[in-house]
C-alpha cells in the first residue's frame, strides 16, 4: 500500500470518527470464514458498519481528533482490529456482539475498546456496562419526566382538593337550607 493510499484511508477513517460518536474496536481472531460472513451479514441487517483496518492507520486517524485516544494505543490497538460503527446508537454494536456470541456459541468475537460520545471503554469486561448505558435522549427524557412529576402532583392535588371543597360547600349549604 502506498503512502497516498494510506493517507486516503486515514482521512476517510478520521472523518468517520468525527461524524459518528459511537465506535467499537473488536478482535475476531480465530473466526472461520463462515463465522466472519455471518458477522458481516448480521452487521448489515442491524445497520452496523464493520470494517477491518491496520492498527497504525487507526492510531493515526485517532490522533487527528480532539479527544485523547492515547489509552487505546497500549492495549486496544494490538493484534487484529475491526471497527464497528453505528450512526445513531451507542448500544447497537454492543447488542450485536452479545447476540453474535450467544448465537455462535463461542467467544471468538471480543470487545477490545469502545468510544461512546467520546467516553472510552477499554477491555472485554466493559461489554455489559455498554449494554446498560443510556443514550443522551433517554437521559433527557428521564430528566423531563422527573421535572414534570412534581408539577403534575401539585395540579392533581389542587384539582382533587377543589372537588372536595366544592362538595363540602354544597353539603353545608344544603344543611342551612
From TrEMBL:
**One Pfam family, short name please?**
Ribosomal_L10
GO MF, one example: large ribosomal subunit rRNA binding
| Superkingdom of source | Bacteria
The keyword RNA-binding is annotated on this UniProt entry: yes
How is this protein annotated for GO cellular component?
ribonucleoprotein complex; ribosome
By its UniProt entry, which CDD domains does this protein fall under? Ribosomal_L10
Keywords in alphabetical order, please: Ribonucleoprotein, Ribosomal protein, RNA-binding, rRNA-binding
GO biological process, alphabetically ordered: translation
Query: Which family does the entry's similarity section mention?
Result: Belongs to the universal ribosomal protein uL10 family.
Record text on subunit structure and interactions? Part of the ribosomal stalk of the 50S ribosomal subunit. The N-terminus interacts with L11 and the large rRNA to form the base of the stalk. The C-terminus forms an elongated spine to which L12 dimers bind in a sequential fashion forming a multimeric L10(L12)X complex.
Function, as annotated: Forms part of the ribosomal stalk, playing a central role in the interaction of the ribosome with GTP-bound translation factors.
Q: What is this protein called?
A: Large ribosomal subunit protein uL10
The gene behind this protein is rplJ
Amino acid at each position: 500500500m502506498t503512502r497516498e493510499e494510506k493517507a486516503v484511508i486515514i482521512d476517510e477513517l478520521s472523518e468517520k470518527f468525527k461524524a459518528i460518536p459511537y465506535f467499537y474496536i473488536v478482535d475476531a481472531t480465530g473466526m472461520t470464514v463462515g463465522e466472519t460472513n455471518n458477522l458481516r451479514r448480521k452487521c448489515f441487517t442491524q445497520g452496523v458498519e464493520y470494517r477491518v483496518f491496520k492498527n497504525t492507520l487507526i492510531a493515526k486517524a485517532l490522533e487527528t481528533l480532539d479527544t485523547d485516544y492515547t489509552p487505546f494505543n497500549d492495549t486496544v490497538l494490538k493484534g487484529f482490529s475491526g471497527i464497528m460503527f453505528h450512526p445513531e446508537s451507542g448500544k447497537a454494536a454492543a447488542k450485536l456482539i452479545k447476540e453474535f456470541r450467544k448465537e455462535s456459541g463461542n467467544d471468538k468475537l471480543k470487545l477490545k475498546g469502545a468510544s461512546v460520545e467520546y467516553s472510552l471503554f477499554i477491555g472485554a469486561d466493559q461489554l455489559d456496562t455498554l449494554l446498560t448505558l443510556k443514550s443522551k435522549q433517554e437521559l433527557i427524557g428521564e430528566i423531563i419526566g422527573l421535572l414534570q412529576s412534581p408539577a403534575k402532583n401539585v395540579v392533581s392535588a389542587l384539582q382533587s382538593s377543589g372537588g372536595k371543597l366544592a362538595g363540602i360547600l354544597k353539603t353545608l349549604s344544603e344543611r342551612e337550607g
